[in-house]
Write a structure and sequence with these properties.
The protein is an all-alpha fold. The chain contains six helices and no strands. It comes from Oncorhynchus tshawytscha (Chinook salmon).
Length: 128
């Protein structure tokens, strides 16, 4: 994915997702340090749209709840055994639509538990 594609995704989905998840006004956007996420064009869009971004150190343990969400989506799609790219795309959309916002909320709420375990394991692998 290119940085311009990432900006397009943010434009299309970020504010809609905030509304659907009922996050109100006091939310903070989290992303990893992938170069497309930290590019000047993305930083400008985030600043222009007054998006508060969580500072995220490079080389940090991955505590991002989106990783758990991707794993859940992958599990659901693989269970349906897509046989071609068109079917994979369709199944991803169908399964994504079935994931309830409360599931996402629970992943976010579990952050402290993940952080505690990362500290306990001194940044080595955890069950998360």
């Amino acid at each position: 994915m290119r940085k311009e594609n990432y900006v397009d995704i943010l434009k299309q989905h970020l504010k809609t997702s905030v509304r659907k998840l009922k996050l109100g006004c006091k939310w903070v956007f989290q992303m990893d340090n992938d170069p497309k996420h930290t590019s000047k064009v993305v930083a400008k869009w985030l600043k222009d749209n007054k998006v508060k971004v969580l500072e995220w150190p490079s080389q940090s343990p991955d505590l991002n709840p989106i990783e758990n969400l991707w794993a859940e989506l992958n599990k659901r799609v693989q269970a349906r055994r897509p046989t071609n790219l068109t079917q994979l795309h369709q199944l991803c959309q169908e399964e994504w639509a079935k994931i309830h916002p409360t599931y996402c909320g629970k992943l976010v709420e579990g952050y402290l538990k993940r952080l505690t375990q990362v500290k306990q394991f001194k940044c080595n692998a955890t069950k998360y």
